[in-house]
Specification:
By secondary structure, the protein is an alpha+beta fold. The protein has helices at about 5-20, 20-30, 35-50, 50-60, 75-105, 115-125, 125-130, 150-160, 165-185, 225-235, 245-250, 300-305, 360-370, 370-380; strands spanning about 65, 70, 200-205, 210, 210-215, 220, 255, 260-265, 275-280, 285-290, 310-315, 315-325, 325-335, 340-345, 350-355. The chain has 2 domains: about 5-195, no CATH class; about 245-380, Protein Transport Mog1p, Chain A, CATH 3.40.1000. Keywords: Membrane, Transmembrane, Transmembrane helix.
Length: about 375
């Protein structure tokens, strides 16, 4: 029988190191022998499977829903989507490595197929882990983790491809845009990444990144806040997930005219835990959900640092995502059937209310019914 610990332990250690201490881990990766087969089999293959597998499981177990509309893919359709997205993701890594190998000398770096593949595969770690966002309802905010990959590419440009720090930002811009183009060509765009960006963040004497860079259409990216979010992730990684029962105990028995009619809690190991309650009044009903994102709680900090913002509006309603008072918020409302959702991220916790109500204000009041102080004490 194969000893799984012999392979999973180094994998987990590498993932943890590249996410929490990229400046220290990139030189270690650069010094390792080039091993394309080993890099794929021991690192890319298991991590690239996270998104497709979680998407498949979510579809079969929960189906998909948005503002009152629900659907569930067929078993064969789900399997076909899982396999095709997995294969395309792996092929995309190799194609992007070829591009990085070609582009690096244009920025006074050094060409090298092995280093390019190391940069692409390890730099995509955050995007791989963002696939966990598809596993359980209420974990959608984890998708922001994928945006951290552009920071990993930036910090790895010099150690891996020998691109001078003065040109690392421009090199990263080309790499990220190339990744987007590869995804579009492959027909597998899973989320918008970032376009071209300019500006020059400062460098301290120790070589650490700091300051801000400007992303057209998104505003300023605060690298200091990104480092702070990474530090928060490291701190939270040393704390165990909150037991689901403790989260469930925070759900109030009533919210205004709405009475709690059902409760449910789920534990997902190191990924975190969640609890939700169903609240009903007359013909209206919504779900209030609390999610402990555990070690991934710093993801919202990445979103705030990147200035993530999205707004859509038409005659039937609106959707918007952004940062309010330093916290990521999501909000959507459909006028016709009075259906919507409102969510906020407080540190390692996500609170979201979704369903039918008289107005979006009732959903906001439901989220506000969860005491932030009590949440903070659970995570301390």
């Amino acid at each position: 029988m194969t000893d799984l610990s012999a392979t999973t332990t180094p994998l987990i250690a590498r993932v943890r190191a590249i996410l929490l201490n990229p400046a220290e881990e990139w030189p270690v990766i650069a010094a390792e022998p080039d091993d394309t087969a080993g890099l794929f089999t021991r690192y890319a293959l298991p991590l690239a499977a996270i998104g497709p597998v979680c998407t498949f499981l979510h579809g079969q177990l929960f189906g998909y829903g948005m503002l009152g509309v629900t659907w569930k893919p067929s078993l064969l359709g789900g399997l076909a989507g899982m396999v095709s997205s997995y294969v395309v993701a792996l092929a995309g890594l190799y194609v992007l490595a070829l591009i990085v190998d070609f582009v690096a000398p244009k920025f006074d770096g050094q060409a090298g197929r092995g280093p390019a593949l190391k940069l692409v595969v390890h730099g995509a770690t955050a995007s791989f882990l963002a696939g966990f966002a598809q596993l359980l309802p209420g974990l959608g905010i984890l998708g922001l983790l994928g945006l951290y990959s552009f920071y990993l590419f930036y910090t790895g440009a010099t150690p891996l491809m020998k691109v001078p720090q003065a040109k690392a930002l421009s090199f990263t811009a080309v790499t990220v845009v190339s990744a987007l183009v590869v995804s579009i060509v492959a027909g597998a765009v899973s989320r918008p990444v970032i376009g071209l960006f300019g500006g020059a963040p400062g460098l301290s004497d120790s070589g650490e990144v700091s300051g801000k860079l400007t992303v057209p259409g998104m505003g300023a990216v605060d690298l200091d806040r990104m480092k702070a979010a990474s530090a928060q992730m490291e701190a939270d990684s040393k704390k165990p997930p909150i037991p689901a029962a403790q989260l469930q105990a925070l759900l109030p028995a009533a919210i205004g005219a709405y009475q709690r009619t059902a409760t449910e809690s789920t534990g997902a190991g190191v990924i975190g835990s969640s609890a939700q309650g169903t609240y009903s009044a007359a013909d209206r009903s919504f779900t209030l959900r609390i999610v402990d994102m555990a070690a991934l709680g710093g993801i919202a900090g990445f979103g705030a640092a990147l200035g993530v913002e999205q707004n859509k509006e038409d005659a039937s309603g609106y959707e918007k995502t952004g940062t309010v008072d330093g916290h990521m918020q999501t909000e959507a409302w459909r006028q016709g059937d009075h259906n919507g959702k409102f969510g906020v991220v407080l540190g390692r916790f996500s609170i979201e209310a979704e369903g039918s109500a008289q107005s979006i204000d009732e959903l906001k009041a439901a989220v506000a019914a969860i005491d932030p102080g009590k949440l903070a004490s659970l995570g301390s």
